Amino acid sequence: FFALLTAFFWTATSLSFQQATRKLGSLAVNVLRLIIAFFIFGIISYFTRGLFLPTDATESNWIWMSVSGLVGFVFGDYFLFKSYELISARISMLLMSLSAPMAAIIGWSILGETMSLLSISAMLLTIGGIMVVITEKKKLDDQKAGVKNKKLQFSFSPKGMLFAFLGSVGQAMGLVLSKYGMQDYNVFAATQIRIIAGSIGFILLITLLKRWPNVKIAIADSNGMKFVLIGSIFGPFLGVYTSLLAIKYTTVGIASTIMAIIPILI
Fold this sequence. Notes:
Layout: H1 2-24, H2 26-49, H3 59-84, H4 89-96, H5 99-111, H6 117-144, H7 158-182, H8 187-209, H9 212-220, H10 222-249, H11 252-259, H12 262-265
């Protein structure tokens, strides 16, 4: 249920960030969404737990959840957004669906999680369905545009495909590391640690690339910031929180598979 809820939240955030990225640029959107999410988490945590920061977390929680945030948010999302610049979002999503079997394999090797034959069959069926929907949509688009091809053809950049694949690796590893680092710790606070690490990672990246002038311009764009705010609420706040609840109650393979239906929901 939480994985399905995550898919709906991430659908909303994908549509919002798609608009925001076109207006403000991917790096600016990435850092702004995490900073906004950081303050949302801090304020809610202060009123619900009496702590603005998750200072009650153990050293192990901080280390592994921080690594998870850097791998999932900075590495994974950076390459995913970069892939959008080179190939269509549809092809990127197709490759991102590979994060489900990757998460299942990594979860098995690191966490010792096992899946029944029925679960594995269901995962393959779901991923196969996603691929059918995405490729069929491409075929229909070609037909509407008057392109007559008996074979389905993709025009893509090898670099773009590589970036999308690296994005799926980042998402899979981020989820597994989250489950490993979270243990019995509060899910809300664990998510907050991921947000903090991701924010710091993007701040360092933007500093190294000297992109702060772009971020200042983005902040001044009220229309673009509206989409960033909406996306931040449904993505780094609600979406990431429910995704960690999902992997807490089921295996990362099953949770990742259900989360992968975002292209169909869109």
